[in-house]
């Protein structure tokens, strides 16, 4: 375990950094600015009220259970319809028979790179889902699993941004404010941030195509494997950074496999 020393030190330093930001009340600024420059969405968000949400630790564990079980996310969207109007291609798997029966076949096309039966639904000239009608989902009860799973809180939770091409989602995501009042919430948030940062910076340590190219899937992946960065064991110093990164990547791959195969707490 010698090669894990520097990872442990980096993780502890990152935790101390996050905890200091929490104590000084500027963590929200870090969450807004990590991984990108300030955007028009952020400027607009400054004039909108915050949206208090769950303790970040409770939300994290609920989200992991939902990811594992397929039960879908429980998101207090209110009147927000940003994800329905932000030029998303919606993936529908072959087992989504009720969903497929609810959508005109002319709106679907084969999903590139996926097995036969996987399809995508596009969006109209305004970037709206074609099933979004009269300012609401017209197939809500049979909506795709992709829509059921979507939760824009993954962005403030990981410090990632959905991207400048989706300003409505970026604007809404920046308004969420997690409850960080417990040590566990602070520790786990730091670990999720460290994981997301590692995924972004060290994609070359993973097998080809394991790391998603879009921010949403990167955030979801970080939530699935963040436990690698929670409690790294003590070890002697080692200066082989490449070996260290590969060791962490291997641990994340193992954690990802276990996540898919085991029950999630």
Task: Break the fold down into its secondary structure elements and pairings.
Layout (H helix, E strand, L loop, with lengths): L4 H20 L2 H7 L6 H6 L5 E5 H14 L20 E3 L4 H6 L5 E3 L8 E3 L10 E2 L2 E2 L7 H5 L4 H5 L8 H7 L2 E4 L3 H19 L13 H11 L15 H21 L4
Parallel strand pairs: 1-7
Antiparallel strand pairs: 2-4, 3-4, 5-6
Helix pairs in contact: 1-9, 4-9, 9-10
Rg on CA atoms, Å? 19 Å
Mean pLDDT: 84
Q: Report the span from N to C terminus.
A: 26 Å
Strand order of the largest sheet: 2-4-3
Largest sheet: 3 strands, antiparallel
In total, how many beta strands? 7
The ordered string of helix (H) and strand (E) elements is HHHEHEHEEEEHHHEHHH
Task: Tell me the domain tally.
Answer: 2
- Strand fraction equals 5-15%
Class computed from helices, strands and strand pairing: mainly alpha
User: How many DSSP helices?
Assistant: 11
Which range best describes the helical content: under 10%, 10-25%, 25-40%, 40-55%, 55-70% or over 70%?
40-55%
Principal-axes geometry comes out as globular
Low-confidence runs (pLDDT<50, min 5 residues)? 17-38
């Amino acid at each position: 375990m010698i090669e894990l020393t520097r990872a442990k030190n980096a993780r502890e330093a990152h935790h101390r950094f996050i905890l200091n930001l929490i104590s000084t009340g500027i963590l929200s600024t870090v969450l807004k600015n990590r991984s990108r420059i300030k955007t028009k969405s952020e400027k607009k968000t400054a004039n909108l009220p915050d949206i208090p949400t769950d303790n970040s630790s409770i939300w994290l564990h609920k989200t992991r259970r939902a990811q594992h079980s397929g039960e879908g996310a429980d998101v207090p969207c209110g009147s927000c319809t940003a994800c329905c109007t932000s030029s998303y291609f919606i993936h529908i798997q072959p087992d989504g028979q009720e969903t497929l029966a609810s959508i005109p076949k002319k709106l679907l096309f084969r999903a590139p790179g996926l097995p036969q039966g996987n399809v995508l639904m596009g969006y109209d000239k305004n970037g709206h889902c074609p099933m979004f009608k009269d300012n609401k989902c017209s197939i809500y009860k049979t909506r795709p699993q992709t829509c059921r799973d979507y939760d824009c809180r993954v962005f403030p939770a990981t410090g990632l941004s959905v991207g400048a091409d989706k300003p409505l989602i970026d604007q809404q995501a920046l308004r969420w404010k997690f409850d960080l009042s417990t040590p566990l919430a602070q520790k786990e948030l730091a670990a999720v941030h460290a994981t997301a940062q590692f995924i972004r910076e060290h994609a070359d340590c993973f097998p080809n195509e394991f790391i998603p190219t879009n921010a949403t899937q990167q955030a979801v992946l970080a939530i699935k494997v963040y436990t690698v960065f929670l409690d790294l064991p003590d070890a002697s110093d080692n200066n082989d950074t490449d070996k260290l990164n590969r060791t962490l990547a291997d641990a994340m791959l193992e954690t990802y496999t276990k996540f898919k195969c085991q029950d999630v707490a």
